[in-house]
Design a protein that fits this description.
The structure holds 2 protein chains of 2 kinds. Chain A is of the alpha+beta class. Chain A contains 3 helices and 12 strands, in the order H-H-E-E-E-E-E-E-H-E-E-E-E-E-E. The N and C termini of chain A lie far apart (72 Å). Among the domains of chain B are: 96-169 and 523-580, no CATH class; 412-458 and 668-804, Multidrug efflux transporter AcrB transmembrane domain (Multidrug efflux transporter AcrB transmembrane fold). Chain B has helices at 6-23, 39-51, 66-81, 96-112, 117-124, 126-142, 147-154, 162-169, 203-226, 241-275, 279-303, 313-335, 339-362, 370-398, 420-440, 459-470, 487-506, 523-533, 540-549, 554-576, 585-592, 617-622, 632-666, 669-692, 705-725, 730-753, 761-792, 797-803; strands at residues 56-63, 87-91, 188-195, 234-240, 478-484, 510-514, 595-598, 601-610, 627-629. In chain B, strands 5, 6, 7, 8 and 9 form a 5-stranded antiparallel beta sheet that branches. Chain B has a 4-stranded antiparallel beta sheet with strand order 2-3-1-4, sandwiched between helices. The longest helix of chain B has 35 residues, at 241-275. Classes of the chains: A alpha+beta, B alpha+beta. Chain A binds chain B through residues 23-24, 49, 51, 53-58, 60, 62, 77, 79-80, 84-85, 87, 96, 98, 100-101, 112-115, 117-118, 121, 136, 152, 154-156, 158-160, 182-186, 188, 217-218, and chain B through 65-67, 70, 95-97, 100, 135, 137-150, 153-154, 164, 175-176, 184-186, 229, 551-553, 555-556.
Chain lengths: 218, 804
Amino acid sequence: MGSSKFVAAVAAALLASGFSGAFAADLSIVEKWMGNNSGARTLKVSFSQTRTMKSIRVPIRQSGTLWIDYGRSRFRMEMGNPAQTIVTRQGSSMVITRPLGKKYEKRAYGSGSDPAMASLSGGVPRSMSEFKRKYRVISTDLKGSTYHIVTQPLGSSGRGVSTFTFLVKKDSFNLSGMEIRLKDGSYVSTTFRSVTPNASMPSSLFTQNLDGYTQTKF
Amino acid sequence: MTRIPPIFVVLFFGALAAFSVMKVKFSASLYEMLPADLPEVQGMDQLSRFFNRDGQLAMTVKASDSWIADEALISLVEKLEQHPELFGEIHRELGLSELVTEGGGLIAWLWLNSSYVDDVIERLKPENSEAAVAESMASIQSGFFDESTVIDSYDPLGLSRVAEILRDDSSDDEGQGPDPMRSEDGTFQLIYVEGAGVDFSNYRDSAVWLDQVRPLVSAWREDWLATQEEGTELEVGLTGTPAFMAEVGAEMERDMTVSVFATIILISILFWIMHRRTKPLSWLVSAMAAILAITLGIGGLVFGDLSVMSAGFAAILMGLAVDYGIVIYREAMDSGLDAKGLRRSVGPGVLWAAATTAVVFLSLNLSSMRGLAEMGNLVAMGVMIGALVMLFFFAPIAVQFNSEPVQRRGVQLSGGGVRSRSAGFAAVLIPVVAVASMLVGEMPRLEPNFHPFRIKESPSMIAWQQLQSELRGRENSVPTVVTANSAEELVGRLAEVERRMESSMEVGLLNFYRMPTSLVPDPAKQAEGWQKIQSILGERDRVLSEIAGAGFSEDGAALTQSVFEAWEDYGKQLGGRSLALPTGKLGRWSVDRLFAEKDGTYAALATVKPQNPQDREWVEAVCDEHTAVASLGSLGTALNERMQRDLVKVFLPMMGLLTMMLIVVFRSWRDLLLSLFSLMFAASALIILTVWTPLSWNSFNICGLPLLFGTGLDFGIHMIFALRRSDGDVAKARAGIGKALVFCGSSSAIGFGSLAMASAYGLASLGIVCATGILVNMLVAVWLLPRWYRWIHRIPADKAASAA
């Protein structure tokens, strides 16, 4: 083999390896992250969220808390401090209340408009099979001390969503946040301020007293 | 004349026939050959007339996950947009930003056309609008972040909720209704593409266009898959009117060409086996080509576009017309007459035979199947033309070959083969086995769910079926077309139809129905709505400034602005006519799917899901003279019912008439009995075949029964007269008429049999049944009937010995 042919072959090999490196997602990162989640029965997450929407002039910043009880398929989410919106889910039904206006809405969980945009409420996947069922991994990149697992939600939950990125800490493989890019160009970034696994959660946390509230459709 | 090399003669007339076949225009509208008075056929006709767009092709993608389907479709649309010479508008599922730019026209129109216009006026009043905008902003800031939050951010006044209100108001209990562009899991998606550059009402042009589109899409698929991970799978389907038209048209042309070629080749082989002569064969083939060319030319002028069933007429005609040539050829060999003498000798017989055959085929006009009637007319016309061509074109040539005797050339039939005892045994056995088969197996019946016009292995039909099964709510749904002479009348009729559908639901005939009411222009509602909307048009600037003041961007206010603009536009439309139609691509596309106006007729498209699609009770409950269903499920049942009625109407009188004729012809009860028994025997053989083989009866091939009855009688008459002339000498009768019957029966069976390869199920099944029946008739007439003749006429054994 002449030297020019040898150089060409090496270049081709390097190019090929570069290509596969750029496109193939490193699922081992997801596996390690899932390994961390599998033991959690409950999760309490304090977060802050920035909504940068094309239709709104200035980005909106909010903080909130999320309680997830995996075993009983229920959650509670509070947005704002004091809470401006409270969402609770018990099995297949969901209640959204706005304490300020004393209004509430009942929805079936999983009906139509609950999707990837609201996937925080669905809880983070806890196994690789659950993850693969819900997301297609597009890429995994290390930025600083955080892995960015860029995914596309599968099925109807992916509608309107361009990418859904999980931010996982390099050292602990714990989830530190999420980023959602919508197809209209809007962007929502959620940063987890604290994550407490297996916190005790009384049943009353997942029910809301609707006395004095008016039913509506938000 | 005989010095011309035979190959040139065949090539010249073959080219003439090929040119005629190429000039034939087929109608790709399959329902045109079915009974026009059936609501199912009317439904298909109206669906095609009002709602099918000749140039609209549906392109489908099926992937292993929704993301791949999404990405593939985006890439496909980009590729198609690079070819404006082939594609016009491309309709695809709109994203949020496109909904904002495209949705205003539709939203404004839905309010204008609804009974809820007061709601939007109330919402836009100064005392309410500011609070509504503020509430939207609060919801966006602190609400649960989901799809509705994003929509609210583009629609601060909730104007798009009109769709929700109308949906709640409708009878639709399947929630928001099926997504017309995407399966529930997103793995199957489609786009609608408007073709450009050709006349899509012509299937040949559609085929040319599709021949450009297919490789383009196929190349795109290959290129796109090359950019994906290894193992990625993607199926792409093309369906819709241009694909159906191109496929059906091409298949019909192929059917006609293949069946004609196959028939001519097989008949030529048969001629060679029986006569071992090439020159007369080349002229015979040329005469057949000339008959085809003339018939197609006149047929095109008389009937216009031919239906899929008529594609089979040419092969049948070839099989029948060649018989006249054979009669003339044999007579020329036997008699040594000149052309004039030959015409005087066999002319009356040939013309009478052609006339009776024509009458049998013309009797198909009594059938409700328009396609079959057209085919019957073409064959009838063709056999008359065939008789004339053979007498005046082939006869002068045939006499030039009478210099050498042909009696001993080729296959000769003797008096042997079937012995008297065997024939007697068969006469008892076959009818007994037929009765036993019906008792043990099953009684002869028409296949349920048979769709004679379906094309075998149609890629566009496969893609269509996949589309129906993938999109939620599309399976078993039946399009229902309601028509009226004005938009006002149409609104009234829709209300009546809805009442009937509701009653049908209550008694369990329907599982579901969906009315198009909210997307059908209602002049009364629009007039009232416009009166009210005018009062708020001046509020536009105030409302937009409230939206901006609450923190929404220009994008956030765009939808509201476009709604106001659209209302102004509808006001202008209503100034000139009684109804306004939506502006914008989305609005037009949404309404055009369910409402159409053509030549002064207004049509709306509803959907029903019957409990039992094959039953006709629900059809009768839903349809009236202005309402028709394009139901393939009940069509099979309807056709079977109609054919059974036709059989009684056509076949029984024909049998009676022919029996009377037989009495006159034979003037012998023995020969009458023999002739009728031969028919009954052949029918028994067919029953055995249909019970124990895949051969079966359906609403199309059942129409072949009169033809089989006619040929059976014909063969029987010829053989009985030959036996009379020869005093029951079986050998003599077989050597003469027997050989002719074998050739005629075989050539006719070849003509019909070549249709077995036809792409339309109906035509193929008609060909198979008729070919089988004719062969059975031939075998009975040539090998069994002579023995029965001797038995019934008690002809002594010494004569029998001489016959053997």
